[in-house]
């Protein structure tokens, strides 16, 4: 966005915002009976309704002009052509190749990468069949009942979120667990429930050097070796990594390594072997459906005109709410318990991709970019933070993600339908309430009807007014299944890309996580050193000393 805000397209949007700012969305709906039709898009069981945003047709066409001025179409071509658009790491960002089932070539540096991808998919398929059918046996000859994915960030959030989302499709008798946190309580809590003889670990780490993952992996390895012996490692550990050397050092044999490539960013890697836990859990055919859903969204993103293009519209609506209406956060509210981890997944996708201070050319960005994402499944959020979204001064746009059909398990179909109706009624009610609000006049007549009058009524009235005119998108999935989940994730991936291009950001690096890592490596030896810490500020030095003092006084429990 370094210079984009100076362009005539940006200026036109600012002027347009001033012109329409007094118009309430209620009036926009009243004036335009076809508003839903005009401001919604549909693709294979996924409906995207963006009509409840304070925009007009003109707003959207000005936003599309802005996208064109930012060169969105050219950048999209460069991404799909495998150019090194991640300029600070000189890498392509070619995750769409991972879900390309059409047979068309995808190239990186002039080399078609599809044969390598397909070979790896074949390896994944063979592994999933072997584990699911019980051919793969643990050291004592028992089939695998529990898979533990050890990874963090991009090597955890995607498969963890998706396994929960698609649990309905998971194989009975096979459970997937995810350990990411270096807090020993995480691994400990998972291992406490498992039997080493029937547990298989997937160590998922692109670099195989991530401190948290390596410590968790080593502790898991000790757990297996202690109970089954050193030879059991081969039957109880596989790795997903681009660093075969480091995996070999850990003691995992070459035949148990699933690879991927440096042009797959961590937070875009669920489509690669990083999805191994998911593929094993739901089976390879379903994993292929998941890939196909993402591919359908890729094709839509490439082919649909910008004005009718879902990721483009989702991105542009966000730009409007952020940069022109001043919102600095975004609530992601899946009305689906199965999608409980989706907000956390999107937090990484959007905030790690676009949470940057400088543009691609290194110049400072001249406005705020990525919003702060947060969220919880509905209806829980309604009983927690929705109050602020309805009435607090600051604008907090919302993405509602709603699933029409529930999956049945223990409850009867009738019970499920009852629950689903209540759930969905709440989602639709929230978006309507945010849009319409409740005027002072409406509150007054409501209170009068309840028999209130005079000062009692006047005192209560301002508390019950809702300003409305609060933006929200609704994404309605017919069913939460592998294909639609693939579409949904790819929709947000491309939305993130669209916004990054408009802000002028390289969405594919993450230098902002380095400083903390570096300092942690410095502090670690200080925590066990006898010498007092003087290397930091007074706060950090004192905290280190307090930690050491605590452990000096309580050292008996570690022996
Ligand atoms: C994602 C990031 C980051 C990464 C983790 C784990 O885009 O790069 O979240 O996925 O730091 O890294 P490894 O997979 O290398 O362990």
Q: What is the CATH topology descriptor of the largest domain?
A: Rossmann fold
Rg is 26 Å
Structural class: alpha/beta
The largest sheet, given as strand count, sense and whether it forms a barrel, is:
6 strands, mixed
What value does the average pLDDT take?
Answer: 96
User: Can you tell me the number of structural domains?
Assistant: 3
Helix content: 40-55%
| Envelope shape | globular
Number of DSSP E strands? 13
Associated small molecules: glucose-6-phosphate
Beta-strand portion reads 5-15%
Q: Can you identify the CATH class of the largest domain?
A: Alpha Beta
Under the CATH scheme, the architecture of the largest domain is 3-Layer(aba) Sandwich
Helix and strand layout, with pairings?
Elements: H1 8-20, H2 25-31, H3 35-38, E1 40-43, E2 46-49, H4 57-69, H5 72-80, H6 95-98, E3 107-108, E4 111-112, H7 114-133, E5 146-150, H8 157-165, E6 175-179, H9 184-191, E7 199-204, H10 211-228, H11 233-236, E8 237-241, H12 244-250, E9 257-259, H13 276-282, H14 284-303, H15 310-324, E10 329-335, H16 342-354, E11 372-374, H17 386-391, E12 398-405, H18 413-436, H19 440-449, H20 454-460, E13 472-479, H21 482-503, H22 514-526, H23 538-553
Parallel strand pairs: 5-6, 5-7, 7-8, 8-9, 10-11, 10-12, 12-13
Antiparallel strand pairs: 1-2, 2-13, 3-4
Helix pairs in contact: 1-4, 4-15, 7-13, 8-13, 8-16, 13-14, 14-21, 15-21, 16-21
Bound molecules: glucose-6-phosphate.
């Amino acid at each position: 966005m370094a210079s984009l805000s100076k362009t005539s397209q940006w200026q036109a949007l600012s002027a347009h915002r001033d012109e329409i700012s007094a118009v309430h969305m209620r009036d926009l709906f009243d004036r335009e009976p076809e508003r839903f039709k005009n401001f919604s898009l549909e693709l294979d069981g996924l409906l995207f309704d963006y009509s409840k945003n304070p925009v007009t047709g003109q707003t959207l066409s000005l936003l599309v002009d802005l996208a064109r001025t930012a060169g969105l179409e050219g950048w999209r071509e460069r991404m799909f052509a495998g150019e090194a658009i991640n300029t600070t790491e000189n890498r392509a960002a070619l995750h769409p190749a991972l879900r390309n089932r059409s047979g068309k070539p995808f190239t990186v540096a002039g080399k078609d990468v599809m044969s390598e991808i397909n070979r790896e998919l074949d390896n994944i398929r063979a592994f999933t069949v072997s584990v699911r059918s019980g051919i793969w046996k643990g050291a004592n000859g028992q089939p695998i009942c529990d898979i533990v994915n050890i990874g963090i960030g991009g090597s955890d959030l995607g498969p963890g979120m998706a396994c929960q989302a698609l649990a309905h499709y998971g194989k009975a008798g096979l459970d997937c667990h995810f350990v990411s946190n270096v807090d020993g309580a995480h691994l400990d809590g998972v291992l406490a429930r498992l039997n080493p003889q029937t547990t298989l670990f997937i160590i998922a780490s692109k670099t195989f050097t991530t401190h948290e993952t390596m410590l968790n992996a080593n502790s898991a390895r000790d757990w297996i070796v202690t109970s089954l012996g050193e030879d059991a490692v081969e039957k109880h550990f596989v790795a997903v990594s681009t660093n075969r050397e480091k995996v070999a050092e850990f003691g995992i044999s070459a035949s148990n390594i699933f690879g991927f490539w440096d042009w797959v960013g961590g937070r875009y890697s669920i489509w690669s072997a990083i999805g191994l836990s998911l593929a094993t859990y739901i089976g390879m055919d379903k994993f292929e459906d998941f890939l196909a859903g993402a591919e359908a969204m890729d094709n839509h993103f490439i082919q649909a005109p910008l004005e009718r293009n879902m990721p483009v519209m989702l991105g542009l609506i966000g730009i409007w709410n952020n940069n022109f209406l001043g919102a600095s956060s975004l609530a992601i509210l899946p009305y689906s318990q199965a999608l409980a981890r989706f907000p956390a997944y999107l937090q990484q996708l959007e905030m790690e991709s676009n949470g940057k201070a400088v543009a691609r050319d290194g110049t400072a960005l001249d406005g705020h970019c990525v919003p702060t994402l947060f969220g919880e499944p509905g209806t829980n959020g309604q009983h927690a933070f929705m109050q602020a979204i309805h009435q607090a001064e600051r604008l907090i746009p919302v993405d509602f993600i709603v699933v029409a059909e529930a999956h049945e398990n223990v409850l009867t179909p009738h019970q499920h339908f009852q629950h689903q109706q209540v759930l969905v009624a709440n989602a639709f009610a929230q978006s309507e309430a945010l849009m319409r609000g409740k005027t002072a006049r409406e509150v007054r007549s409501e209170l009068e009807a309840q028999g209130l009058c005079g000062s009692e009524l006047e005192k209560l009235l301002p508390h019950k007014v809702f300003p409305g005119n609060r933006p929200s998108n609704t994404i309605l999935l017919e069913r939460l299944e592998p294909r639609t989940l693939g579409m949904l994730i790819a929709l947000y991936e491309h939305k993130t890309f669209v916004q990054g291009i408009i802000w002028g950001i390289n969405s594919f690096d993450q230098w902002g996580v380095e400083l903390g890592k570096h300092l942690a490596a410095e502090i670690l030896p200080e925590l066990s050193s006898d010498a007092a810490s003087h290397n930091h500020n007074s706060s950090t030095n004192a905290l280190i000393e307090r930690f050491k003092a605590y452990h000096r006084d309580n050292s008996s429990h570690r022996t």
